[in-house]
Amino acid sequence: MVNGSACYKARMLPARIDVAIIGGGFAGCATAWALARRGVQAIVLEREAELGRFASGRGAGLGRQLAEDDATTALTVRGAAVLRSELSSAWTPSGGLLTFDEPSRVQAYVARAERHGLAIDVVDRARVLTQWPEVRSLPIAAGILIPSDGVIEIHELLALYAARATVELGVAVERVEPGGSGAQVTTSRGVIEARFVVDAAGAWAGAASGDPPLDAFKRHLFVIEAASRDDTPYLWHLGNEELYLRAADGLILTSACDATHGAACDAEADPEGLRGLREVLARSAPGLERAGIRKQWACQRSFTPDRQMRLGRDPRRPWLVWAAGLGGHGATASPAVGEVVADAIGA
After folding, report:
1. Distance between CA 25 and CA 158 in Å, rounded?
2. Exposed, middle or buried by CB within 10 Å (0-12, 13-18, 19+), for 52?
């Protein structure tokens, strides 16, 4: 149940709740979804007038399972399994291709896939180019095909989570502190007493409780006017230069994986982002750099200092639970993130 900001004056927030969740992105909504399945009363407090207004609603929707480390891969593999089964209306099977400059990196990813029971195929450069001939100038030593990867319809996924949750839009959380049975949550529409507070505020995580900010990085994404086939696996090149491409309604969605460090904000596209994309495409995919731009936007990804997701109970404040620092893997990992956070609450 989602209550929009246009009608919030007719409603009062509950004075008490088991779990108050700050943030209506993937982490917050998935946690509410997981708690609802356990019969736990929770409320999502989202300051904007819609869910996923920032990072969650602006991603590329790549259902990538094989991540940079084991901890993240465990979450993305589990998350993708739930997406393919229980949340399948938000998932389109496509397969995914990870490509590399250096053979040593390929072996590290192959070993990680084996540890997590993820079926893959190691493919050569020629095989990659049968799928993406546009990237003929990429220095590809080898690639890994993950047949069970896919593409996520991010707004559909948020809607599926919200259908099982109580969500209040237009509610800004101003402060969280100890009080009552656990914590006192001061919002723009009153005070809520909660046994637990889940901080799922994305790049703003920690702001309400006075914790140090996460590292936030701006990234540009583009839909370019170049033809694609919908059955083509997405491609993500993990080399000295990063680049990803995927089919998007007959066109190509792409990013040069830029990362400009800055404060949490409503990220906006800028000319430097487009210039950077053109330069990378000129070196890697000659011809695409001249394609017209159908759409462009920017998002913000947030990371903890050690680049590991911050999930679970805070060691100093038993009433505070984290669901933050998803680092760009939020869509794929979100079902597993919700489960982990719900387990940490003890529900």
Report:
1. 7
2. buried
Q: What is the CATH number of the domain that holds 331?
A: 3.50.50.60
- Smallest CA-to-CA distance from 95 within 63, 61, 140, 137 is with 63
Same domain, 88 and 155: yes
Report field, pTM of the whole predicted structure over 0.90: yes
**Cα separation, 35 vs 167, whole angstroms:** 13
**Token representation of residue 169:** 């839009």
Q: Tell me the C-alpha distance between 159 and 87, whole Å.
A: 11
Task: Give per-residue burial for 200-218: e unless 16+ CB within 10 Å, then b.
Answer: bbbbbbbbbbebeebbbbb
Of 298, 323, 75, 282, residue with least CA distance to 199:
323
Residue 276's domain comprises 96-147+216-303
pLDDT digit string (tens) for 277-301?
999 999 999 999 999 999 999 999 9
Q: What is the largest CA-CA distance in the chain?
A: 64
Q: Same domain, yes or no, for 185 and 254?
A: no
Q: Tell me the pLDDT tens digit for each residue of 167-193.
A: 999 999 999 999 988 999 999 999 999
The token duo for 90 is: 């938000």
> Position 8: which residue type?
Y
Assess whether 177 and 30 both reside in one domain. Answer: yes
Co-location of 79 and 165 in the same domain:
yes
Q: Note whether 89 and 233 are same-domain residues.
A: no
In order of 87, 178, 220, 243, 313, the CA distances from 273 in angstroms are 33, 43, 6, 13, 37
